[in-house]
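Internal ticket #5521
Category: modeling
Description: The requester needs a full-assembly model to guide mutagenesis choices. All entity lines are attached below as received. Residue total reported by intake: 502.
Assigned to: D.W.
Attached entities:
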Amino acid sequence: MHTRIKLIFVVLAAILAGTVQAQDGNSARDKEELQMIALEALIHVPEERALPAVLKLLESGGSDDLMESAMFVLGQMDSPEAAAALLDFARNGNGDAREEAIQMIGINGDATAMAALADIYADGDEDTREAVLEAYLIADDVDAVFAIAMAATNDDDYEEAVETLAVMDAREELKKLREAKGPSEAFVDAAIISDDHEELERLARDSSNPDVQTEAIEALGIVDGPNAEAVLLEIYKSSTNDDVREAAIDGLFIGDYGEAILELYRSSTNAREKGELLEALVVMDSDLAMDIIDDALAGDQ
Amino acid sequence: MNDHSPHEFDALGLDREVKAPRHMKQRWHDSIDLAAQREFNDQKQTARAFSMSSFFWGSAVTAALALGIAIGVFVADDPEYIEPTEYVVQDRGNSFDRVMQVHLRDTQNDIASMPIDTAEDRTTLVLRIIQQNRLFEQAAERNEADNLARVLRAFEPILLQLAASDIAPEDAEALRDQLAFQLKVMLTKLERSTSKETTST
């Protein structure tokens, strides 16, 4: 029985190495299908035997699908040798293989390989850095992403890290980051992603950075929190800043708060303002717009 | 009639098509992008609640009970939904691995029978799979099965791509194959570890 298993393994290894061809043809497609079947069968083989065959396949190359599958198998192996091989691909591999290996380190979770991702991020190009963030996301390593955000030296890296923290719902770390680095539009996006109404409301009321404030006001309509309509109304009524008021209308528009816009329309005494509010209602395709028009034509307004 | 009204309406140009200002349109586009991101995350948060009649729940509970596992679940006010906030297998051993096997096998079956050509049906099914996947990811975290939680987290980007309504059938098929392969690897690994444990006891 032992000999039979050995024989099966030898055949699988030969198929993966590409030395055995499909009988009914020599096309690359046939060969790859056979390799995929062999890779699937290899899952049942003890890891110490399967590892060399998978590594050989990864080194010899193949289609994206085949390489992805082989890398996944490697990522599911528990030995330090498999983790070391993943790390080697992550450091020295090219393009997709490198990114795939980085992602698999996140899935595998090997402590040594995970620790090495920080250097790979620091030395990597944009795609590599993105892959490292994804690996941290998969491994749920909030501390590592927070460290990247704190150390970021350009806006893109900073925003990517902040958004990753938002997807991880790491509200405490986002708060620490905002306190350390000050408000920015990245935090508005983060609050939207993590559905953090309170943070969005805080940013919408903070006039220290006008761009961030107007973004946050509009975003209140997107997140549609429990107080969004009332907060937007309050911001509109209490502000004398045209940009802030315009953002509040946009927020009401985005949130489909037609009743609130109607309230502002009825309380306004400024013809231009009334025009803008009615225009918003018309664009919203709201029945309320027709009510206003009917009222006005009937002389009620 | 208020004297101002006719002038106000003249200024609005209601006799012609009213178009949204360009800056507003741009903001809506931006908002749609952000809202889509938010929706994905929103689903992540609402994934704690799922339908009692969901396609796999019955078999998962049956399997859990058959194994004599105590699973604490919090039943929300709405009897249609269960919030698995306390989904913890109290007798760890390899029992949780077996529950995961049931989940992965059900997912595997759903993926295999997934309609590729009808985007709407595919999206509906995949969104349900995503919901279940998130539920089990949380369960894995609570059961300190970090390795399983990581894999389930890694499934999600593939599932989200598969849920997209504008994906070409051949791309959907490739993603389905990728997912099916990864599920098979995971199942084999779990089966191997549970059988090892059974053999050694």
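Resolution: model delivered.
Comment from assignee: The mean pLDDT of chain A is 88.
Ticket closed.
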